[in-house]
Amino acid sequence: MWTIIILTTITLTHWHNLYGHLTLMTFSLVMAGLVVFSLFWGIILGIFYYRDLAHYHEPPLKKHQLVLLPFGISYMYVILFFSIIVAYWRWSFRQNSWIKTEHGKNVS
Fold first, then answer.
1. Using CA atoms, how far apart are residues 76 and 8, in angstroms rounded to an integer?
2. What pTM did the predictor assign?
3. Which terminus of the chain, N or C, has fewer Cβ atoms within 10 Å?
4. Can you tell me the distance from the alpha carbon of 37 to that of 28, in angstroms, rounded to the nearest whole number?
């Protein structure tokens, strides 16, 4: 969970490098669309989760948890959605390496 929050913070602090080629209007529309799309699914999946809790006789959520649930689900949904897009992009261009660090390189 903390990793996602940290990566989101890094992305937001470097948004100009990532999305600087977009106009402010285009960037705003894309972000607004993402928020609406993901909150829609956050609400839908939150309803399913709430009903599952009742079905399995689990204790109900507190009011503040019910309010935060769609936001948490939608946030995770956006993160997972983009990871799938990146994975498909890498797969389609046969970029399947997994180099986390560069070991064994000569530093000159």
1. 11
2. 0.58
3. C
4. 14
Query: Look-up: residue for tokens 């507190």?
Result: 62
Which of these, 88, 94, 51, lies nearest to 69 by C-alpha position?
A: 51
Amino acid (one-letter) located at 24: L
H or E element, residue 25:
helix 24-55
Residue 34 in tokens: 């993402």
Q: What single letter denotes the amino acid at residue 36?
A: V
Check residue 98 and report its DSSP letter.
-
pLDDT tens, position by position, 69-104: 998 888 887 777 777 777 787 888 887 776 655 665
Token code pair at residue 48: 């399913």
Range ranked top by mean pLDDT from 9-18, 52-61, 96-105? 52-61
Q: Which two tokens stand for residue 73?
A: 């689900």
